[in-house]
Amino acid sequence: MTSTEEIKTVGENARKRYGKRYDELGRNIRTLGWGSQEQQIYRFGETLSAEIDLQDQTILDIGCGFGDYCVFLSQRDIDFSQYVGWDITPSFVSEATHRFADDSRCQFECCDIGTVELANPVADFGIMLGLMNWNLGSTEKNYDYSEQLIDRAFRCVGKCLVVDFLSTQLTPDYPKEDFVFYHSPARMLEYAFSLTSNVVLKHNYAPIPQTEFMLFMYK
């Protein structure tokens, strides 16, 4: 099992990586690792929000970046009751806090899901997008790391957790990249069933630009 110290190291490396990008690019879509705003909106809308109804719900966005998903919901008149954004990068949290200073429903905190321990759920729905794509150098370490994060995140929500992954079902015309990790949909579905029997695996949306899938884990 990936140790607590190893998980902390992964978080610290991510904090440095994204902090450096922020220093270079500021509040930019590329700072977050998104290919384009169009890809980000597609992931938010056609894949995520098409599956779950967040009207009047509380939301926990793990790895919230600049709070872009909150912007997406507001632009589509989805009247959520509360939005909590967690990110490990202080500059992202500061940007998001300033961005939503006039919306009392929104709050942002520096928090590492890899180390957080909570007794009670934080929100009804949780989303965790793009957090487990980095290649840690070992297949089993990547799976163990992903499973530990999902387990912690699942305990933070009252109704449903949504997680996305790059898929081992590769996009034929897009080259495989060594610095990212591709998860097996079958293996992650099996793991999800160890947490709950109420699971949806969504693997039928267009590559963005690589093939992805989402797990919706309901309580």
Short account of what is shown:
The protein has 219 residues and is α/β, with parallel strands linked by helices. 37% of the residues lie in helices and 20% in strands.
Overall description:
With 219 residues, the protein is of the alpha/beta class. The chain has one domain (4-218): Vaccinia Virus protein VP39 (Rossmann fold, 3-Layer(aba) Sandwich). It has helices at residues 4-25, 37-49, 68-75, 90-99, 139-154, 185-195, and strands at 58-62, 82-87, 106-110, 123-128, 157-166, 198-202, 212-218. A seven-stranded mixed beta sheet has the order 3-2-1-4-5-7-6, sandwiched between helices. α4 (90-99) links the parallel β2 and β3 (106-110). The radius of gyration is 16 Å and the shape is globular.
What labels would you give this structure?
single chain; about 220 residues; alpha/beta; Rossmann fold; seven-stranded mixed beta sheet; globular
Specify the CATH architecture.
3-Layer(aba) Sandwich
User: How helical, in percent, are the residues?
Assistant: 25-40%
Structural class, from helix and strand content?
A: alpha/beta
> First CA to last CA: what distance?
25 Å
* Overall geometric form: globular
Number of domains: 1
Topology of this protein?
Elements: H1 4-25, H2 37-49, E1 58-62, H3 68-75, E2 82-87, H4 90-99, E3 106-110, E4 123-128, H5 139-154, E5 157-166, H6 185-195, E6 198-202, E7 212-218
Parallel strand pairs: 1-2, 1-4, 2-3, 4-5
Antiparallel strand pairs: 5-7, 6-7
